């Protein structure tokens, strides 16, 4: 048998950020924990891989919620405390500067909120007082709780701000970095992201997401959690309103007092109730992405990509929904991992340019193999052209010349490695904030619980096991 | 176990769960929340550490008893004594 016991206090499905954090909390307080991951690499939606000697991050452009040492009462501080991880363990370096770029207008932001405020006030002088009042409203809004929320951010913001362009420009980065809903988001989610991105900020470990994963894995081990990679759950057997046994991919059957699933709400339900022929469940998120990753000979800054992260949109109205084509090139995110303020002026070994846009899962899924490859080639070229079109002062020929290696992921890549239906990186539009399911000893954390980003995901794992298991 | 020893135990636990807090001047009669940056997650951990390190159980209904060092000492000292006996 591949796992060491036939019964555990808690089985956790998925060794992503939320699953690892949940495991650490439970292990710290003496629960016997089995942490299962079907993929061979940990991290889930925020993972890493190597290809031909190059290292790539998946997911993480930036760790949001970054605050410098000494700033108190923020989500990042809670993570360090709850997991007993020293603050410097993640080796975080702050961003240089990022921006939101619309036609003829750019709003820059850094980890100092005043910088962003000044940019907004200069570009939208008539909105000055309304914007300041709105920011205060956001600061006072208590968003990180486990209560249900399906309010409309667009409706709420319209009560505070008047200029439609400013509203679109604020929505663009926040939706790209976490909205599972098309065209709108829950206002609570808006607040969480506004804090995470504008009031707090971006940082990145020099080694990328693997640094964070390494630190979490070390803690997982220290607290005595049993971790199995390349081993998933085939089915959950229910009896008497709870989960009575767990069948693993290798055919073994185990028991647990509690089961914590990070794989998504519908995905988890299917583990209990069997997988339908057609998994086009209406509750599954529709939003997915594709990303072109270019390894460049020069630092992308030398080519003119000076910002850390650019959220761009090529018209005054920002569309956030499943596109009608394979890729929607009208908007996207350009990320340059080199553009962080790394200690001692270090730079990454390679230049990296990542360009992300919205993509249609079903269209990618329907492509035969040869067409899929071709679509990735075309998509890569066009995403690079888009990045150049949206970045003043960059020359496409110089960029093309500088690219020494390339990779590209599509919505189907996301499903292949994470199991999330429809390549929906932000999961289902309707979040289950308290993590409860129809089964009394089965709880959800991670993407479909609804805290956002890497810090949010860890906080999700922590909050759900605190609430359902440790407190009980 | 004296009340002062119980207060020291609580301070040691806080130092462990919130190493970024300055505990050199914690006033025993003032609510911990009012002088330190502690939230409900941190209080849960005080309870969890009491159970793990000292075998002391604090039911959820009694969490308000942990508001200040003085109230912690008043509430927990009898529990420590019962346990030692």
How do the strands and helices of this protein lay out in sequence?
The complex is a heterodimer of chains A (472) and B (85).
Chain A: E1 7-13, H1 17-28, E2 33-37, E3 48-51, E4 54-57, H2 75-83, E5 92-94, E6 98-102, E7 105-109, H3 113-123, H4 128-140, H5 153-160, H6 164-176, H7 187-200, E8 203-205, H8 209-222, E9 226-229, E10 233-239, E11 242-248, E12 253-261, H9 265-273, E13 288-296, H10 300-303, E14 309-313, E15 327-335, E16 351-359, H11 361-365, H12 369-389, H13 396-402, E17 403-409, H14 411-418, E18 442-444, H15 453-470
Parallel strand pairs in A: 1-2, 1-12, 2-9, 6-14, 12-18
Antiparallel strand pairs in A: 3-4, 5-8, 6-7, 10-11, 11-12, 13-16, 13-17, 14-15, 15-16
Chain B: H1 3-17, H2 32-35, H3 40-54, H4 69-84
Descriptive report:
With 472 residues, chain A is α/β, with parallel strands linked by helices. Chain A has three domains: 7-61 and 209-282 and 426-470, FAD/NAD(P)-binding domain, CATH 3.50.50.60; 102-200, no CATH class; 286-418. Chain A is built from 15 helices and 18 strands. Chain A has helices spanning 17-28, 75-83, 113-123, 128-140, 153-160, 164-176, 187-200, 209-222, 265-273, 300-303, 361-365, 369-389, 396-402, 411-418, 453-470; strands at 7-13, 33-37, 48-51, 54-57, 92-94, 98-102, 105-109, 203-205, 226-229, 233-239, 242-248, 253-261, 288-296, 309-313, 327-335, 351-359, 403-409, 442-444. In chain A, strands 1, 2, 9, 10, 11, 12 and 18 form a seven-stranded mixed sheet that branches. In chain A, a hairpin with a 4-residue loop joins strand 11 (242-248) and strand 12 (253-261). Chain A is globular. The two termini of chain A are 31 Å apart. The model of chain A has no long low-confidence stretch (mean pLDDT 95). With 85 residues, chain B is mainly α. Chain B has one domain (3-84): Non-ribosomal Peptide Synthetase Peptidyl Carrier Protein, Chain A. Helices cover 59% and strands 0% of the residues of chain B. Chain B is built from four helices and no strands. Chain B has helices at 3-17, 32-35, 40-54, 69-84. In chain B, helix 1 (3-17) packs across helix 3 (40-54) and helix 1 crosses helix 4 (69-84). Chain B is globular and about 35 Å long. The N and C termini of chain B lie close together (11 Å). The mean pLDDT of chain B is 94. Chain A binds chain B through residues 28-30, 69-70, 72-73, 77-78, 80-82, 84, 86-87, 462-463, 466, 470-471, and chain B through 16-20, 37, 39, 41-42, 44-45, 48, 51-52, 60.
């Amino acid at each position: 048998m591949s796992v060491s016991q036939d019964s555990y206090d808690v089985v956790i499905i998925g060794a992503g950020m939320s699953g690892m954090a949940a495991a650490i909390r439970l292990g710290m307080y003496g629960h016997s924990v089995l942490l299962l991951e079907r993929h061979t690499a940990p991290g889930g939606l925020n993972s890493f891989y190597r290809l031909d000697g190059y290292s790539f991050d998946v997911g993480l452009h930036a760790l949001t919620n970054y605050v410098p040492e000494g700033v108190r009462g923020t989500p990042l501080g809670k993570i360090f405390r709850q997991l007993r991880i020293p603050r410097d363990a993640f080796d975080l370096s702050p961003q240089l500067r990022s921006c939101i770029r619309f036609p003829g207008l750019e709003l820059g932001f850094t980890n100092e909120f005043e910088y962003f405020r000044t940019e907004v006030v200069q570009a939208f002088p008539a909105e000055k007082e309304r914007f300041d009042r709105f920011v205060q409203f956001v600061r006072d809004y208590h968003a990180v709780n486990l209560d249900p929320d399906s309010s409309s951010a667009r409706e709420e913001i319209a009560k505070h701000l008047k200029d439609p362009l400013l509203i679109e420009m604020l929505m663009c980065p926040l939706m790209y970095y976490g909205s599972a809903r098309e065209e709108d988001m829950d206002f609570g989610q808006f607040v969480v992201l506004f804090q995470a991105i504008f009031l707090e900020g971006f940082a990145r470990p020099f080694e990328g997401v693997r640094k964070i994963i390494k630190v979490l894995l070390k803690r997982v081990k220290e607290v005595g959690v049993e971790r199995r990679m390349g081993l998933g759950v085939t089915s959950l057997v229910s009896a008497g309103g709870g989960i009575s046994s767990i069948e693993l991919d290798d055919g073994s059957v185990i028991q647990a007092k509690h089961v914590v699933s990070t794989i998504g709400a519908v995905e988890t339900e299917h583990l209990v109730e069997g997988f339908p022929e057609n998994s086009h469940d209406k509750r599954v998120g529709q939003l997915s992405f594709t990303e072109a990753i270019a390894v460049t000979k020069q630092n992308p800054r030398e080519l003119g990509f000076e910002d850390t992260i650019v959220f761009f949109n090529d018209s005054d109205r920002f569309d956030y929904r499943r596109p009608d084509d394979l890729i929607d090139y009208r908007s996207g995110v350009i990320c340059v991992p080199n553009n962080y303020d790394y200690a001692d002026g270090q730079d990454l070994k390679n230049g990296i340019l990542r360009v992300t846009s919205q993509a249609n899962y079903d269209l990618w899924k329907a492509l035969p193999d040869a067409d899929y490859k071709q679509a990735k080639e075309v998509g890569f070229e066009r995403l690079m052209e888009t990045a150049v079109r949206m970045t003043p002062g960059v020359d496409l020929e110089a960029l093309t010349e500088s690219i020494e290696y390339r990779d590209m992921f599509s919505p189907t890549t996301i499903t292949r490695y994470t199991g999330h239906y429809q390549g929906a990186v932000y999961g289902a539009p309707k979040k289950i904030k308290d993590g409860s399911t129809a089964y009394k000893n089965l709880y959800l954390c991670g993407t479909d619980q609804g805290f956002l980003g890497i810090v949010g995901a860890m906080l999700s794992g922590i909050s759900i096991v605190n609430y359902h298991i440790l407190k009980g | 176990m004296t009340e002062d020893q119980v207060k020291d135990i609580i301070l040691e636990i806080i130092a462990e769960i919130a190493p970024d807090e300055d505990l050199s001047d914690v006033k025993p009669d003032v609510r911990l929340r009012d002088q330190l940056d502690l939230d409900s997650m941190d209080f849960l951990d005080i309870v969890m550490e009491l159970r793990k390190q000292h075998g002391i159980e604090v039911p959820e209904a009694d969490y308000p008893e942990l508001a200040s060092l003085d109230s912690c000492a008043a509430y927990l000292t009898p529990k420590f004594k019962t346990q030692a006996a």
